[in-house]
Write a structure and sequence with these properties.
The complex is a heterodimer of chains A (about 100) and B (about 725).
Chain A: H1 2-23, H2 31-58, H3 64-89
Helix pairs in contact in A: 2-3
Chain B: H1 2-29, H2 32-61, H3 68-73, H4 80-85, H5 91-112, H6 120-141, H7 166-195, H8 201-231, H9 242-267, H10 271-294, H11 309-329, H12 346-378, H13 386-406, H14 417-423, H15 425-441, H16 448-479, H17 483-493, H18 495-519, E1 522-528, E2 533-536, E3 539-550, E4 561-570, E5 576-579, E6 582-585, E7 604-607, E8 609-611, E9 616-623, H19 630-640, H20 645-661, E10 666-674, H21 677-694, H22 698-718
Antiparallel strand pairs in B: 1-10, 2-3, 3-4, 4-5, 4-6, 6-7, 8-9, 9-10
Helix pairs in contact in B: 1-2, 1-6, 2-5, 2-6, 5-6, 5-7, 6-7, 7-8, 7-10, 8-9, 8-21, 9-10, 9-12, 10-11, 12-13, 13-16, 15-16, 16-17, 16-18, 17-18, 18-21, 19-20
Chain lengths: ~100, ~725
């Protein structure tokens, strides 16, 4: 009896929580937020790579020539991410 | 109350099934409401598991022996700390702990990714729900922790005395947190494969969970080793026991994963390798739980043996087959985005380090399962012992340490050989100096592998020191900060890198402890009477007198009788100190031993006494011979078997006093173990490094806030003015 009663109460409570999104108004689309957060994360990761490469050259691990070519590639990738972020905002410069 | 607990489990099972179904439907139909509903179901699952745990904990604290689990794993005289932790000493309770931790971890990761990874997250939710559902199914179908007894006993059996150790009580939740933590990156990897979104997004979202899981698993392994050293009475910390190995295997592969994901994040390479590694880590985590719970291999952890092995095997087989099919079907999406520029690059060394770690795991796997393999092939069970493991793992460990020295000084993409030579000048000098000092001042020359380990460890430690020095110097050049500020800002801005270096330093310190303590250990087993003296490892030790106490065991484990010894030790410098090894005796419920005898003839555990030191430990244990008490105990059983508890307590006290006054020779084990403390210190350093690496950077927090506001701004600006 205790088991059946507890199960009914618990399932009702779970039902209230999980069915709420299905019954109410559809959640306001925030797909942009997700894409933006992912791009921001990618941007930070790329910036970190650029900073790491700078640190490596200052610490003597990377020659200046190697750093120049690596830095060029990394910056191009970072610019691509920034352009995608701008497109998301609708502020991409006309090309 | 047991009904409420069982209801929580069944409701949890239905909720997990719903979470999986709603998430997959939501993802396939593009219906965000179902995805949110599935995510909420996981939150509900966590609440239900918390409720179930609260019900069970309450039963343990109340010593409610109508619960079979409480009657089996606790008693009224079990100390409160062990009552609280007794839940995971039992199989059913540890399954509940798995489900609880998994639901909490799942809730945390789904909450953190609620606005990102919109394609992957619903499938990851489904995977996590299926894993949780499996554990709930085990509990609902076969091992219900809320099973009740029709005729509850007046007293419980009590917690297994071997488990009455603080480290042992924290060890299982740590291991399980590690195992469960790895299910998060596994679930997101599966989600990434299903959605063909095989970039680094899923890694970035779950990397921290993998690191936390690795840290917990490593800490759990260390606590298990500490328990073995201080509780099991044999004097070692690692026996290559199947259950120990079962926890080491996912840790090794998890370590490889944590390194190789950096290559995918930075270069878009090793995608297949990374998904394979995380699948292997998760499968090994399941295998670890299975080995503890199945009892298929002889182990010091035999207290965990039971009958749900088949279910585990079926589930593991399904995970392996399903994951393999998924990886193969997604191979075209797992191609590398870049090629290895040079063999002299950090990514190349990460790959080598991965191969060594996986090689170590394969050695441990083969040795662990060899008894099963040999039985299947030859019909005779044969096993490999610690010497086999040591012979194969030592060279691999040496290569691993050498790679730990080279990896950090090599840059990403490529490095010139001249740069490498330049970077290795000081580390090589440090290693040579260590070689000379070790040869001149220690007997390390007699053990070439230990000596090599010391030199490689020096190489790593100097490399780590040099990395901090050069990094801080570079910062000072840019900012002009004073040294302490430059150093702290360097670490704060590069937590992952410098936290990792600290973890490397901790690992080599730990390896030094292992090398020193295993190569130069001196052990003596003796039978001594009071007044006898012996020498070991530079100590002179005298057995001064026997001890016998009632209800005063040092560990607070609730043992009613403790027999021990007072040892007076003197080192080479004439410094004296006292050691008090003892052995606790726990009563048995076996009525055939008699009312008095049951207090002496139940389980007994060693309470070793250790003189800890940075240079060496002196470890002592005693096995008292109480056979001389057999006749008096028999007489006491006959005379006082029906007497009151107070009278019986007086009789037991008299018997203990009899032993103390006329102790027969006792068996002692004394071990002098050099550098063993550095194992625990190294473990602490690894933990510190992992915490630094896992700590969220201020940029990540700012980014999250900034992206929310940016999205809101974008929406507001695009909205039509009213």
């Amino acid at each position: 009896m205790e088991y059946a009663l507890a199960l009914i109460v618990l399932l009702c409570l779970v039902g209230l929580v999980v069915l709420h999104p299905l019954l109410g108004e559809a959640p306001r689309s925030s797909a942009d937020e997700g894409a933006r957060e992912e791009l921001e994360a990618a941007k930070e990761a790329k910036y970190r790579e650029i900073r790491d490469a700078e640190l490596d050259v200052q610490m003597g691990k990377l020659s200046k020539e190697d750093h120049r070519s690596i830095d060029r590639e990394l910056r191009a990738e970072a610019i691509e991410i920034l352009e995608r972020l701008d497109r998301l905002d609708g502020t991409a410069p006309d090309s | 109350m047991a009904g409420i607990g069982s209801a929580c489990l069944f409701a949890g099972l239905l909720t997990a099934v719903y979470a999986a179904g709603a998430s997959v439907y939501g993802a396939r139909a593009g219906n965000g409401a179902f995805v949110i509903s599935g995510r909420r179901a996981i939150y509900c699952l966590a609440a239900l598991m918390l409720g179930a745990t609260a019900v069970l904990q309450s039963a343990f604290l109340r010593s409610d022996f109508s619960y079979a689990l409480v009657a089996e794993g606790s008693s009224t005289d079990t100390p409160t700390f062990y009552k609280v932790t007794a839940m995971w000493a039992t199989q059913d309770g540890s399954l509940l702990l798995w489900a609880l931790l998994l639901s909490l971890f799942s809730s945390a990761v789904l909450f953190l990714t609620r606005r990102s990874l919109r394609g992957i997250a619903p499938y990851a939710t489904a995977v996590l729900a299926v894993v949780a559902g499996f554990f709930l199914l085990l509990m609902v179908g076969w091992e219900n922790p809320f099973g009740t007894l029709a005729n509850p006993p007046a007293e419980g059996s009590g917690l297994n005395p071997l488990l009455r150790h603080p480290a042992m009580m924290i060890h299982p939740p740590m291991l399980y947190t590690g195992y469960v933590g790895f299910s998060i990156p596994f679930a997101f990897a599966v989600g990434a494969l299903i959605t063909r979104n095989t970039g680094a997004d899923w890694i970035r979202a779950t990397r921290r969970f993998a690191l936390v899981a690795w840290t917990f698993l490593g800490t759990g392994i260390m606590l298990g080793a500490l328990w073995s050293y201080t509780e099991l009475g044999w004097g070692g910390y690692w026996a290559w026991d199947p259950v120990e190995n079962a926890s080491l295997m996912p840790w090794l592969v998890g370590t490889a994963f944590l390194h190789s994901i950096m290559v995918q994040e930075k270069r878009g390479m090793l995608k297949i390798w990374n998904v394979c590694l995380i699948i292997a880590t998760f499968v090994l985590a399941l295998l670890g739980t299975f080995l503890v719970r199945s009892g298929i291999l002889d182990s010091i952890h035999a207290f965990g043996a039971s009958t749900i092995g088949v279910q585990f095997l079926v589930f593991i087989a399904l995970v392996v087959i399903g994951s393999t099919v998924l990886v193969i079907s997604r191979l075209p999406h797992l191609r590398s985005e870049a090629r290895l520029d040079s063999l002299l690059s950090r990514e190349a060394f990460f790959l080598l380090n991965n191969l060594v770690l996986v090689g170590l795991c394969l050695v441990v796997f083969w040795g662990t399962f060899f008894p099963l393999i040999s039985e299947a092939v030859t019909g005779t069970e044969a096993s490999v012992g610690p010497p086999w493991f040591n012979r194969l793992t030592t060279p691999l460990a040496l290569v691993l340490v050498l790679l730990m020295a080279i990896g950090p000084v090599v840059s990403w993409r490529r490095m010139s050989p001249a740069g490498l030579v330049r970077a290795f000048k000081w580390p090589v000098l440090g290693a040579l100096l260590t070689l000379l000092v070790a040869l001149a001042l220690t007997p390390a020359g007699e053990r070439p592998l230990a000596l090599l380990m010391a030199c490689f460890a020096a190489l790593v430690l100097v490399v780590v020191g040099q990395e901090f020095w050069r990094g801080a110097s570079a910062r000072r050049t840019i900012s002009g900060d004073p040294w302490p500020r430059a150093l702290s800002r360097l670490v704060a801005r590069n937590r992952r890198r410098y936290g990792g270096y600290i973890a490397h330093a901790g690992i080599v310190v730990l390896f030094l402890g292992v090398a020193g303590s295993s190569a130069f250990l001196q052990q003596r087993d003796l039978r001594l009477s009071p007044g006898d003296t012996f020498s070991s490892g530079g100590y002179h030790i005298t057995y001064e007198k026997a001890t016998a106490t009632l209800g005063e065991d040092r560990a607070g484990s609730g043992a009613p009788i403790t027999f021990g010894a007072v040892l007076r030790a003197r080192d080479e410098n004439g410094k004296t100190f006292t050691l008090r090894p003892s052995r606790n005796f726990y009563p048995t419920q076996d009525a055939s031993k008699g009312a008095i005898g049951r207090f002496f003839e139940g389980e007994a555990t060693s309470e070793v006494d250790v003189r800890w030191g940075l240079r060496r430990d002196l470890w002592t244990a005693i096995r008292p011979d109480i056979s001389a008490l057999a006749d008096p105990i028999r007489e006491a059983n006959a005379k006082f078997g029906n007497s009151s508890g107070d009278v019986q307590a007086l009789v037991i006290a008299a018997l203990a006093e009899r032993y103390r006054r006329n102790p027969p020779p006792a068996t002692f084990r004394a071990i002098v173990s050099p550098l063993v403390s550095w194992i625990w210190i190294g473990g602490g350093i690894v933990l510190l490094g992992a915490l630094i690496a896992a700590w969220p950077s201020p940029e990540a927090r700012l980014r999250r806030v900034r992206s929310l506001y940016s999205a809101r701004l974008g929406r507001d600006l695009r909205a039509e003015p009213s």
